């Protein structure tokens, strides 16, 4: 790599000169970032080529992880870390009068995802490369990523995220690997002279999928995998054909725009499946280019087609890329000439599927009419898959029409993507133990009964390299000083920290590091938001998408309640706290936007009232993103994971916060259950209904929020402040709908039901935090057990249990 600091400085200065015609004095920070990126890319390229050659030579099975989202964030810091040149580069830059962290800030945060599902995909790529496994991402190169959020008068404003306006230094355009993707047209079956059937596709619209490859650098192992992002462009023939219509140039431009619009923007909604035509086009565009490109790479090996599923695994991240199943069938039958049975066996053996949600409103289904019009051949194949599946059901359950209708892939005028994904794959997994159990017992019960061995659990994980080593360098350093560095490549070794439970010097160090991180955040909040916060207060952190089931509203109401307590009773004091929120709402999610408005209103009241000011502050950090998370997580004391039990599939923020020494206040939901199991009752604050209780209430309809409202004076008083004159409502009826949601419409997410228990848990936290040493022990126990939630563990399980792959022997691992 670089033989030392001087070597780096020379290479860097040369690059500034040759690439940009600048030197360290004349270069802007953006120039310096670009030069550094391009220099690193050179180094990465060598290992990238070598990795590819090794995989080919070893005939390693290749995994393609299909995902509509890859929330990768910035890459400069994590690439430097994984390449093990962070220190050399940082010091070299400092000699030249440049600050690495300032350059890092110049990189646009690649926000190609909504939240959990997209960030998980990014963590998985890091672990695949680090474990030396041949796993690559297939995604879309959206021109506009997740919107930028601004708060104007407390209301969310969405601004476009033109992240490519500045060169994305890591990507390599590979036009020679372009794939043709077809939409629309007519398909007719035709018998050739020998009597065999083939399908003639005419009058379709064809466009080009051009890949942009982003290297995925493994940690300390010279492995570089690929994240391939596809971009839509009009095909050459299309341009010539349309351009010859000279007098219709305006139409031509419209046509061109409509084709390239496929990869124009990321859908910013992870709460509602809207069934938009452009979204289906995006999904098929990803699937078709990915499948064709995977088959092309397989062809290069020169092996018989019957070995396809030994060489290739296609993983679908939720149902969004489920069209992989009929698309692979199409390629195997129509292009490779296989018969149905052989094609089906290979397809099922190659495809595996992860489910990320049980929320019914997020389950995808597409109107038959749309699928048929946009993807006529794919639709024919789906219908045939459905026919054959229903026939097999009929054999097992003769006459049981209801059951067959409820399991069918095509029913009620819709194509049900989850059903397609289950039927067409060999593995279906949930993302935490509880979630997988719920899938088996409820959401996918009938499928589970038919194919029990297909279902399995893979509890989510996060890359501790980005989320600890990079985001919280001082903590990582102190851990290594205490227990050595084995934990970096074997995160289970974090458990060795338990030996330090009684080591006062180490506990002091933990406390001091957290304190310093809190001071850094206080300075940043002061600078960006103009709010003064007390670094000695408890940092209580609630950061995630805004969603009814995630219950930011419960946290907000509790803050109103605390405020009221202090105001009404001057002798009442609380352990000082700063409540942090960060959350984006889907642009069309009215309720979620009201909750943002409420939080902002509470912040305005609380932060400007000297009666409470020294005991509490509320900060809404705008534009939640990977970079914001990296800043705030190392400073957190309390991690809010308060979803209504049974609704959060796993959560991954819970893991990042635990890894950084925050204590969880949480319901027994998603992976919180597993955190609780590891750290024990004393090191987590659990509260609220259990998932069984919630499911029982959903069933028996015995919950009455009105009754809770009437019996609990604290709740009644707080809720009335939403509609009556109060510091929060200011006599306007902005929050009326929230009130009615909670009281009149029976509180869909059991906020009132869980309120008392939540308030009690918060009180326990306030008390426990005062015992500083004990709190540090609890924090240490959380860090020590967080190795289980490294995505290295998760990926190892996917590799052995689902994909059946091993590291390339000749790579350094
Ligand atoms: C079609 C609209 C849409 C888009 C995305 C619906 C649903 C989604 C995702 C499935 C939402 C999502 O990100 N789910 C989260 O996935 C994480 C990773 O597994 C889990 O940790 C979270 O619990 C889950 O909410």
UniProtKB/TrEMBL annotation:
The keyword Glycosyltransferase applies. Keywords: Carbohydrate metabolism, Glycosyltransferase, Pyridoxal phosphate, Transferase. The modification N6-(pyridoxal phosphate)lysine is found at residue 656. Its cofactor is pyridoxal 5'-phosphate. Its EC number is 2.4.1.1. The keyword Transport does not apply. It comes from the Bacteria. GO terms for biological process: glycogen catabolic process. Coiled coil: none annotated. It catalyses: [(1->4)-alpha-D-glucosyl](n) + phosphate = [(1->4)-alpha-D-glucosyl](n-1) + alpha-D-glucose 1-phosphate. SUPFAM superfamilies: UDP-Glycosyltransferase/glycogen phosphorylase (SSF53756). CDD domains: GT35_Glycogen_Phosphorylase. It holds the Pfam family Phosphorylase. InterPro entries: Glycg_phsphrylas, Glyco_trans_35, Pyridoxal_P_attach_site. One of its GO terms (molecular function) is pyridoxal phosphate binding. One of its GO terms (cellular component) is cytoplasm. Belongs to the glycogen phosphorylase family. PANTHER family: GLYCOGEN PHOSPHORYLASE (PTHR11468), GLYCOGEN PHOSPHORYLASE, LIVER FORM (PTHR11468:SF3). NCBIfam families: P_ylase (TIGR02093). Allosteric enzyme that catalyzes the rate-limiting step in glycogen catabolism, the phosphorolytic cleavage of glycogen to produce glucose-1-phosphate, and plays a central role in maintaining cellular and organismal glucose homeostasis. Phosphorylase is an important allosteric enzyme in carbohydrate metabolism. Enzymes from different sources differ in their regulatory mechanisms and in their natural substrates. However, all known phosphorylases share catalytic and structural properties. This is Alpha-1,4 glucan phosphorylase. It comes from Salibacterium salarium.
């Amino acid at each position: 790599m670089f033989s030392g600091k001087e070597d780096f400085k020379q290479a860097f200065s040369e690059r500034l000169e040759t690439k940009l015609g600048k030197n360290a004095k004349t270069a802007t920070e953006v120039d310096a970032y670009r030069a550094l990126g391009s220099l690193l890319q050179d180094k990465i390229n060598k290992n990238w080529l070598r990795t590819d050659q090794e995989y080919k030579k070893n005939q390693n099975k290749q995994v393609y992880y299909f995902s509509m989202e890859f929330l990768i964030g910035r890459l400069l810091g994590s690439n430097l870390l994984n390449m093990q040149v962070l220190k050399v580069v940082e010091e070299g830059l400092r000699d030249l009068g440049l600050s690495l962290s300032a350059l890092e800030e110049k990189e646009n945060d690649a926000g190609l995802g909504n939240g959990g599902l997209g960030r998980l995909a990014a963590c998985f790529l890091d672990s695949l490369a680090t474990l030396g496994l041949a796993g690559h991402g297939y995604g879309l190169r959206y021109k506009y990523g997740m919107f930028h959020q601004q708060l104007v008068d407390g209301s969310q404003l969405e601004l476009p995220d033109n992240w490519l306006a500045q060169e994305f230094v890591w990507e390599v355009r590979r036009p020679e690997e372009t794939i043709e993707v077809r939409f629309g047209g007519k398909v007719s079956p035709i018998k050739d002279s020998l009597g065999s059937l083939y399908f003639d596709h005419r009058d379709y619209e064809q466009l080009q999928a051009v890949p942009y490859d982003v290297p995925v650098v493994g940690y300390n192992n010279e492995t570089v995998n690929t994240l391939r992002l596809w971009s839509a462009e009009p095909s050459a023939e299309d341009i010539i054909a349309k351009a010859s219509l000279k007098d219709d140039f305006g139409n031509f431009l419209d046509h061109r725009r409509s084709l390239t619009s496929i990869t124009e923007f990321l859908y910013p909604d992870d709460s509602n499946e809207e069934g938009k035509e452009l979204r289906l086009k995006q999904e098929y565009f990803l699937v078709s280019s990915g499948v064709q490109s995977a088959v092309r790479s397989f062809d290069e090996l020169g092996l018989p087609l019957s070995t396809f599923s030994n060489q290739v695994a296609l993983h679908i991240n939720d149902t969004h890329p489920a069209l992989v199943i009929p698309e692979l069938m199409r390629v195997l039958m129509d292009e490779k000439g296989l018969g149905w049975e052989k094609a089906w066996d290979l397809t099922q053996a190659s495809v595996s599927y992860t489910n990320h949600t049980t929320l019914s409103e997020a389950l995808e289904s597409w109107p038959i009419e749309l699928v048929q019009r946009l993807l006529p051949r794919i639709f024919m194949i789906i219908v045939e898959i459905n026919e054959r599946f229903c026939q097999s059901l009929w054999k097992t359950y003769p006459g049981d029409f209801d059951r067959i209708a409820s399991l069918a892939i095509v029913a009620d005028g819709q194509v049900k993507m989850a059903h397609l994904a289950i039927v067409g794959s060999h593995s279906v997994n949930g993302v935490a133990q509880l979630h997988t159990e719920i899938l088996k017992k409820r959401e996918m019960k009938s499928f589970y009964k038919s194919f029990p061995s297909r279902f399995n659990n893979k509890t989510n994980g996060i890359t501790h390299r980005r989320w600890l080593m990079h985001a919280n360098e001082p903590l990582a350093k102190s851990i290594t000083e205490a227990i050595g560095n084995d934990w970096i490549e074997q995160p289970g070794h974090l458990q060795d920290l338990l030996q330090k439970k009684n080591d006062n010097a180490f506990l002091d160090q933990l406390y001091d590091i957290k304190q310093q991180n809190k001071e850094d955040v206080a300075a940043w909040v002061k600078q960006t938001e103009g709010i003064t916060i007390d670094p000695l207060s408890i940092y209580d952190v609630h950061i995630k998408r805004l969603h009814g089931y995630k219950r930011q509203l419960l946290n907000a109401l509790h803050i109103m309640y605390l405020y009221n307590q202090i105001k009404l009773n001057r002798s009442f004091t609380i352990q000082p706290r700063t409540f942090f929120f960060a959350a984006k709402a889907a642009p069309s999610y009215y309720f979620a936007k009201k909750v943002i408005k409420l939080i902002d209103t509470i912040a305005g009241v609380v932060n400007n009232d000297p009666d409470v000011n020294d005991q509490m502050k509320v900060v809404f950090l705008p534009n939640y993103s990977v970079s914001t998370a990296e800043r705030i997580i190392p400073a957190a004391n309390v991690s809010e994971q308060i979803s209504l039990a049974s609704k959060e599939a796993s959560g991954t923020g819970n893991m990042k916060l635990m890894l950084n020494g925050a204590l969880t206040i949480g319901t027994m939901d998603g992976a919180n259950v597993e955190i609780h199991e590891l750290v024990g009752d004393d090191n987590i604050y659990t509260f609220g209904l259990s998932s069984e209780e919630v499911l029982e209430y959903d069933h028996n309809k015995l919950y009455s929020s009105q009754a809770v409202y009437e019996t609990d004076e604290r709740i009644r008083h707080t809720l009335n402040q939403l509609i009556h004159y109060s510091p929060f409502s200011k006599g306007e009826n902005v929050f009326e709908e929230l009130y009615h949601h909670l009281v009149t419409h029976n509180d869909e997410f059991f906020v009132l039901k869980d309120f008392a228990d939540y308030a009690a848990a918060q009180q326990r936290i306030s008390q426990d935090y005062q015992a500083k040493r004990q709190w540090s022990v609890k924090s240490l126990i959380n860090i020590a057990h967080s190795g289980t939630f490294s995505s290295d563990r998760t990926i190892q399980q996917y590799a052995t249990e689902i994909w059946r792959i091993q590291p390339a022997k000749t790579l350094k691992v």
